[in-house]
Design a protein that fits this description.
Elements lengths: L1 H44 L18 H10 L2 E6 L5 E7 L7 E6 L13 H6 L3 E5 L17 H14 L5 E7 L1 H10 L9 E5 L5 H12 L7 H19 L8 H4 L7 E6 L7 H10 L4 E6 L7 H4 L1 H14 L6
Parallel strand pairs: 3-4, 3-5, 5-6, 6-7, 7-8
Antiparallel strand pairs: 1-2, 2-4
């Protein structure tokens, strides 16, 4: 009996020892995973995604062009305060005619409102006042980029400015690339004030999927290593949740668009290699509101307006005519 009890004590010690080792390994793996995930999130969030996708060079702080236009054309530079106190910066351009319609142009990732200048002549011709804005963490706007959580509330503030300070009664949102994703998020469940219409140009459907794809390419992993990418992406999302209270899945345009009730125009380049046109098709198919789409066959990512200005204008004009925003 004594020997049995002694053996039981030894057995319990070994059990505790091995459980301790397993627990220690589990904790160590998660600490390493969280550290790597945080590094990947910072690459994603703090102007370092160009390490994963070299085509995404960082021009976010180069505001020389928009300042030159503001001075030369007497465009109005404005600032507003976001809900969290961050200062948001934009440029307001009144139409030469007296109109009560305005459109907010949202630029792409690592850009600023200078990127949106090309859209000004089109909307002026269509009879709109125009607001070019710097997204948070870009250009002259303060705050940290949150992939849509705070940005949709910022759009609400810009809409309120256009209505209360500039007396516009009809407001549209036109987003390009990341700005298009924010437009879709705003149209869905993430906004308190809806716009009257939305134009999304080159939005991704799901941030998690595109991030995993670019991460796999950056790490030069093949499809057999997809599990590794999913593990790294999981820890990245853990970090994202720690920083923002949301995950990539929560901030999915594809998820949000199911709640859209306002007309939406979908634009995309058929030769887009960064965000393939299939992404737009998913969004279009899931949208329950009135919708139109136009694909520019030879255009690459977010440059359809530069490569096809006439077609781009005609697509906008047709859509706005069809939803009775303009009568031309």
């Amino acid at each position: 009996m004594i020997q049995v009890m002694a053996l039981m004590r030894i057995f319990h010690k070994y059990i505790i020892f091995f459980v301790g080792i397993i627990l220690g390994i589990f904790i160590a793996i998660n600490i390493i995973g969280i550290a790597i995930g945080n590094m990947l999130y910072l690459m994603l969030n703090k102007q370092r995604l160009d390490n994963l996708v070299p085509a995404l060079a960082d021009y976010s702080q180069n505001v020389a062009q928009i300042k030159e236009y503001e001075n030369e054309k007497k465009w109005k530079r404005i600032t507003i305060n976001a809900d969290d106190g961050s200062k948001m910066t934009g440029t307001y351009i009144k139409n030469s005619s007296s109109v009560n319609k305005a459109v907010i142009i949202l630029h792409g990732l690592y850009q600023n409102r200078s990127m949106s200048i090309n859209y000004v002549p089109l909307y002026q011709k269509l009879g709109f006042n125009i607001l070019l804005v710097d997204l948070r963490g870009h250009g002259e706007s303060q705050g940290q980029m949150t992939w849509g959580k705070s940005e949709t509330a910022d759009i609400d503030e810009w809409i309120a400015y256009l209505k209360n300070q500039e007396s516009n009664s009809i407001i549209g949102i036109h987003g390009i690339s990341l700005g298009a994703a924010y437009a879709v998020l705003h149209s869905g469940a993430y906004a308190t004030t809806k716009a009257d219409f939305y134009v999304e140009d080159s939005a991704y459907a799901d941030l998690a999927s595109i991030y995993q794809e670019k991460l796999q390419s950056f790490l030069q992993l093949n499809d057999n290593d997809a599990f590794v990418v999913k593990i790294l992406s999981f820890y990245c999302q853990v970090s994202m949740y720690w920083h923002t209270g949301e995950t990539m899945a929560d901030l999915s345009p594809l998820k949000a668009i199911h709640n859209d009730k306002k007309p939406m125009l979908f634009l995309h380049g058929g030769a887009d290699m960064l965000v393939p046109a299939a992404s737009m098709q998913k969004l279009y198919d899931a949208c329950p509101a009135y919708k139109e789409l136009y694909v520019f066959p030879d255009a690459q990512h977010a440059v359809s307006i530069a490569s096809n200005p006439g077609e781009y204008y005609n697509a906008l004009k047709k859509f706005l005519n069809d939803i009775d925003i303009i009568q031309k």
